[in-house]
Write a structure and sequence with these properties.
single chain, 277 residues, alpha/beta, Rossmann fold, binds 2'-monophosphoadenosine-5'-diphosphate
Length: 277
């Protein structure tokens, strides 16, 4: 029987993860099945135990269950412990191991696919929720010139700065409101807010995007996201959406489970075509 994996979410019907992992499995010759599973919003733990009883070996976790997954784990990787959220589960007997591959997926996309490693660059992270928290550690590990976390409510940005202060050895780590960014410029601006879900535009002061800068939206959609449009209008040299991060985090999870790292480029290219269609 093939090894069983799934992604838990709510909603989950439109998840791209089953297609991505099916392609990784085909590419690397792994005998596995990967399904999308809808878990009740207040019933994540029950959905996991049913899946484990069916023989499930591992799972990805997406919105809104990453914190539930974090709490359910009996063991956490250091990066999942820091992120306070889990997107990758491994089931071994009674043990549930939790990992978080979101940050590694983002960095793989920015550094490898987009060939723009943050090392030495002025980096601005917009947002201070779960999505932002998951990427602070791997961003700091690349040693940017500065990492500024800007958020609508300053206290949440400051809380993230405090949480990661011990890792900011060679990189100044600062918190800001959007208005207080006025007069500063950055080489890499990453949108980790959920503002566009409600159709809201971020109130960013003009002049944020330095010459040659990259604007990266962790969201993705059919065309350019609202943040990419805003960034282009304000002078960002290049824009990218989060589809590469999605494929990157999947590849990292696949490697955790199967011990082989798949080739993400062809999967990302075909996903891009599907998304546009
Ligand atoms: P996620 O896990 O996706 O990060 P979250 O924890 O709810 O979700 O965090 C959402 C982030 O988007 C927060 O940084 C939030 O800002 P606040 O902390 O000030 O609420 C940000 N956000 C959501 N809607 C926004 C809006 N309309 N304008 C600006 N920021 C917004």
């Amino acid at each position: 029987m093939s090894d069983l994996y799934c992604v838990f979410g709510n909603p989950i019907a439109h998840s791209r993860s089953p297609a991505i992992h099916a392609e990784f499995a085909r590419q690397t010759g792994q005998d596995m099945v990967y399904e999308a599973r809808l878990a009740p919003v207040d019933g994540f733990a029950g959905a996991v135990s049913s899946f484990v009883a069916e023989g499930g070996r591992g799972a990805n976790v997406t919105v809104p269950f990453k914190e539930d997954a974090y709490r359910l784990c009996t063991r956490l990787s250091p990066r999942a412990a820091r992120a306070g959220a889990v997107n990758t589960l491994c089931f071994e007997g009674d043990e549930i191991h939790g990992d978080n591959t979101d940050g590694a997926g983002l960095l793989a996309d920015i550094s490898n696919n987009l060939d723009y490693p943050p090392t030495g660059k002025r980096v601005l992270l917009l947002g201070a929720g779960g999505a932002a928290r998951g990427v602070v550690e791997p961003l700091l590990a690349t040693q940017p010139a500065v990492l500024c976390i800007a958020n609508r409510s300053l206290d949440k940005a400051q809380a993230l700065v405090d949480l990661f202060a011990d890792l900011a050895v060679s990189t100044p780590l600062t918190a800001s409101t959007y208005a207080a960014l006025d007069g500063q410029a950055f080489d890499l601006v990453i949108n980790a807010t959920s503002a566009s879900l409600s159709g809201a535009a971020l109130p960013l002061p003009p002049g944020l995007f330095a010459a040659g800068s990259l604007a990266y939206d962790m969201m993705y959609g059919k065309g350019e996201t609202p943040f990419m449009q805003l960034a282009q209008a304000q002078g960002a040299a290049r824009c990218a959406d989060g589809l590469g991060m999605l494929v990157g985090q999947a590849a990292e999870a696949f490697a955790v489970w199967r011990g082989v790292y798949p080739d993400t480029a062809p999967v990302l290219a075909s996903l891009r075509v599907t998304l546009k269609g």
